[in-house]
Structures are given as structure tokens and as C-alpha cells.
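Problem: given the chain below (752 residues), write out its structure.
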Amino acid sequence: MRRRAWIRGTVAFWLLWAFAPYATAQQASRKPQIGYVFPAGGQRGTTVEAVVGGQILGGANGVLVSGTGIRASVVGYKRPLTIGEVNRLRERLEEARKKIDPTATGPLRPRDFLNLREIAREAGITDEQLRALEEFRRRRTDPKRQPNPQIEEEVRVSIEIGADAEPGIHELRIVTPIGMTNPLRFVVGTLPEITEVEPNDRVADSSLGERLPAVINGQIMPGDVDRFSFRARKGTKLVAAVQARELIPYLADAVPGWFQAVLAIYDAKGRELAYEDDFQFRPDPLCRVVIPEDGEFTLVIRDSIYRGREDFVYRITLGEVPCITGMFPLGVAKGSRIPAKLLGWNLPSSTVMLDGNQDGVRSLRVEAAGAYSNEVTYRVDSLPEVSEKEPNDTIATAQKVKQPLIVNGQISKPGDRDVFRIAGHKGDRLVADVMARRLGSPADAQLVLTDSKGRQVAFNDDTEDKGAGLITHHADPYISVTLPADGVYFLRITDTEGKGGPEYSYRLRISAPQPDFELRVVPSGLWARAGMTVPVSVWAIRRDGFDGPIDVSLEGAPPGFVLSGNRIPAGLDRVTMTLSCAPSAQVGPLTLRMVGTATVGGRQIQHYAVPAEEMMQAFAYTHLVPTDSWLVRVVGRAFARPPRPFSPDEPVRIPLGGSVAVRVPIPTGPFNRQMTLELEEAPAGVTLEKTDAATSTITIRCDPKTAKVGTRGNLILAGYMARQAVARAARQAPQRFLAGYVPAIPFEIVRP
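Solution.
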């Protein structure tokens, strides 16, 4: 009786799949994506109408903006015509022209489209369709433009920014019938804003006038140069700060690549007062200049090699506004509160208090005359802290330190080197970890560890940190070494390029290994029908040699949400798990939290998973870019309860060279002829051999030549169904669609 009930539930579960082809659309290749929002921000207390460009945005029906005090809605949608649609419209126009003028010969030419209203009315073609035809022609005949289907669809949105909205970066997503998009950055500011008015490539946009400080919003199209004129008084400490790559860190891998802004300021006689193409190590330029006399000036922005397209979006904060260029120290001990020295322009104070009430990386900014500075970051740690003391450039003057501790230091001038004397014992593990670039310092540090006779024991220049998702040059060094003998050791830190200055701060940890981990959950937004199961990737960023298993769970999730395959086995950095959603629809997107638990040195540690988006840069490098929230949107209703998850404590053991049968929720009725099961991201040598609907089992086989004993993880089983193409396309092969997933199946490859 129980088995009969189980089979009925299983069939119902698969019926849900059959009637919900978009239930897991966010995992399919046709996931809604957005590539830019323009303008990319607005002033508090105003309403902004913006264009969001992307793909698969048809039916957009909602806008989500993180934080409070902001409301947004969709006001329109536009997509470019396809070649097929263009050809069909042209055929209708040509037929209509022949009716109006039987003597007309030859095809319609592109330039004729500007005067075709009479023909269009005869053909039943609207003015909007004519405009779409002209836009299609203009895009295809512009030699500077490249086809960019990933940003060609447009959603117009209205964003109402309340007076109480938090200034700074927020995240914007578009909601469609088949899922939520990735987030894009939208900036809430406190200053008046203008949006560029084209053409302004030769004659400057003069709408700024004397209204400084202000924010300029613009776009760089192919070959474009944007100019803005403004008036300023003598002695003004003018700051022009660009946000471009800060808004869109990684553009899609396509021509023309990412936006590398160049910024310049000229006086009325055309003399260049300032020019920048970056700021320290950051790609967005920052110009600072003291205005030499009252008058009119021109600000010019362009791409470094005159590329451009719609997602080359920028914001320029212009005026006598606060700007932080450096800070020391870059951290504080937990539980402490200390002053830090600030470097920069137009700052209300030369110091700021660092608060150590919470572990990890924190951020701060300052305010002056209603304008906010850029954000800077600092770190809170639990180890004792000391400051570097000069002179310490040589072994003879090395600063004596006793581990474990953190040294707050500066490479204070070009060629500076800081040397620290450490006592150690044979067999001890020593870790030296620098945080500089990861905390906003321009220092490109390197570490050298030598013994008392000057022999090199360890060296490092750059170490990749997956937790630093927005860094393209991992310039912070890390050393982990077993000391070869008792004695004195010298640790030297320098800048790789020999640079230095008051901004070149660093934070150096010297200690035994402190095993730890961080988690990232990808993607940051999920969409599913009630009761359905969707995959999520969880990355483990392991620190100081931690290699143990990590158990992952949901915290505070509504009843009915179940995480399956929720263990990251020892040694693995990434595992795909599955989330089964509650069988009843929820109102609006839910914010879920994921927590990881591990045992390290006999003590239990826990960390929340940071939601992130997996982005690619330069066609090769993957970045885990953190986002504000992990959102799940549940729609519709379920026809059955989610299937029972598999336990990570009892993984399926697959014998090397053999096979194993696994009982899973698979169809037992007529749908077994239409459903195809496939393994996604299967480990090497593991294949799905067969599916037996009669016994509700699948058989997994392990190839002895390519599989490896000890391999662990989760098997992700996806179901696909086929539907016959309709009408004129009936001759085509049936189309496949992703119908759903089985809860993750933990596995281990074992010896036979």
C-alpha cells in the first residue's frame, strides 16, 4: 500500500514537470540576462526612467531593487526585429506598393523606408513597425557597430527613489515569466544629476553650467567622445571621479570588450589641466585639479581606443567633493576602536574611527557638505596587532616581532623595504599573508623569507583569492612553509615594481596556520515553480590548508524548503547541490540564508554563504562576484510534495569498473516514453547506463579507465521532454526542454 502511494506521488511529481516546462528556466541556456542599466543611478527624492538592456526579457513584469526606500516598475519593452520578421515586413510592403502603383519596379530600397506611411497603411504596418525597420537598417549599416544580441532587448523602467533611500550602490533585477535576471548596480546619490544630451562629441553639453557639485550620466557608443562644459572658480579643489567598470565589472565576452575610460579636463583655451586613464590600480579614472582661475572648463570622456556600445555606461561625480585616496591602518583588532589616518581631497577630517565590533572586511565613507566620498575597506581580525616601526629596511635594523600577530605597515616611499625578525623552531608551520590590494591599497607586494645566513626559505609574489571577486590582478602574496631548523628568520616585504608612498599600506599576518573557510552560493537568484527542485553551486574558499568536509544548511527558511546533497566533501572546492522549494507559492521573492559548518582543530566554526554571480573575464578567468542577497522566487502551485532528499551521510557507493542501481523519483506511467534523464556535470568516468521506470531505478556505471577511487560529490539528474514543433515547422525535429531535476544524489567511487 505504501509503495502504491509512493508511485502515485512519483507520477504526480512528473506530471508537474510535464505541465511546467519553464519550472526551472533559470538553469536552461535561455535564462534572462541584463547587461546594462542607463542611467545607472539617480538622486534621492527623484524618479528616474531608465533603460535596461539584455536578452530573453520578453514579458518583463517586475523590477527588484535592493535596499529600502526604492520602488520600481516596468513601463515598456522593446526588442529588435529578427531577419525573418524584417523580410516578412518587406514582402508586405512590396505587395502593398504594387497595389498602390502597379507600374513600380525593383525592390524597396532601405532609404525608401523613411517615406512609406501610405504603403505601410495599405499593408497594415504600424508606425512603430516602420521605426523598428529603420532601427534594424541603421544598426546593420553602421560600420562601427558590432552585433550584440546579449544587450539588444530593452526594458524601460521607472525608478522612484525615496528621500530616505540609502546612498550608495544597490542592485537591480528584472523579473520575467521565466525567471529573474542577474543583478546590475544602480547608484543612489545625494547630488543633482544630469544625463548627457547628444550630440556632444564636438560641441560640449552645456547643461551643467555652474551647478556643481553634480553627477553626469552618459554612454559611450562606437567612436564616441562626450564633452561637458562647466564653470568653476579659482582655487576650487575639483574632483572628477568616474564610475564605469565599478558599475559593470565584467562585460560579456564579445567584441568590443570592456570599457576603459579616459578622462581629461581642459580650460577655455584648450590647455589640458588633468588627464587620467585609471586611478592607482583601479581601471576607472579619477582626476584632481586645483582650478587656476575663474572661467569655463571642459570635461572630456571616451574609451581608450574609441570602442563603445550601449553597456559602456558611466557616471562622473564632478565638483569639490570628498575623495579618499588612502588610509592607514587598514584594519583593527576585534573589539577595539582606533583612529585611522585618511589621505585625499576635500575631506571633513584627516582621521576616521575604525570600529572592530564585527569580524571580516568592513567599509566606510565620509560626508562633506551633503556629498559622500568613495568607499574604502578595512579588516577586523582577532589576533594581536602592532604597527611597523622605521627604520627596518635591513636585517641589522629588522623589527623584532613575536607571532601570532598582525603588522600594520606602509611601503612609505619608492624602494622602501620592511624587514621583520621572527624566531622559529624546526618543523613549525609559518604563514605570512599580506592584505593590501584586497583592501584597496595600490601596493603590489612580495614576500621573501630568509634564514639567519641569508638563504631564501620561501618567496611569493601573487596568490589568487577566489573570495576577492572583483580583483583581476591578485597582487597580494601568501607564504605557508615548514621551517627547516631552529633559529632566527627574516621576513621582507617590498613592492614588486619598486613603488611606494603614503597610500601604499598593507596588513601582514604572521602566525601558525589558522584553518578556515568561506562559502559562495551561485547563482544569487533562483526561480522555480512551487514544489520543484533546482540546482545551486556552492564554492568553498579554503584558508590556511583547511581540507575538511563542510556541512551546509538553510537558516530560517520557510517550511518546505529542503537542501539536498548538502555536504562539501573533504578536499573539494565546489559542489552542486539542489534546493527543493516549498509546495505552495510564496508572495514575492524570498531572501534565504545558507550557513556552512565545519570542525577545525576540535572546534566547530560556522560561516554564512555569500551570494554571488559567476562571471567570466577575458574568455578564461572565472570570478565569483558577491551580491547583496540570495533571492528565490517561487511561483504557481505544486501537484505533489517534493521528493524525499538523499542523505549525504549515506552516499551511493559506485564500484570502480562496476555499476549500481539507485531508486529515484522517475516516471512510472506513459511519460517514461517522452522523458529523457541525463547526468549534468558528471565526474570523469561516471555515466547513466539505463533508466527503469517499472522499478523506479536508474543504473550508474563507473569506467575503470577514467574514474578515480575516492572521488566524491553529488550526481545531478535532469529530466528533458520533447514536444513536436508546430505548423510550418512540423518537419523539424521535436524540440527539447528542461523539465526538472531530481534532488542531488551524494556519491563516492569505491574499490570493487
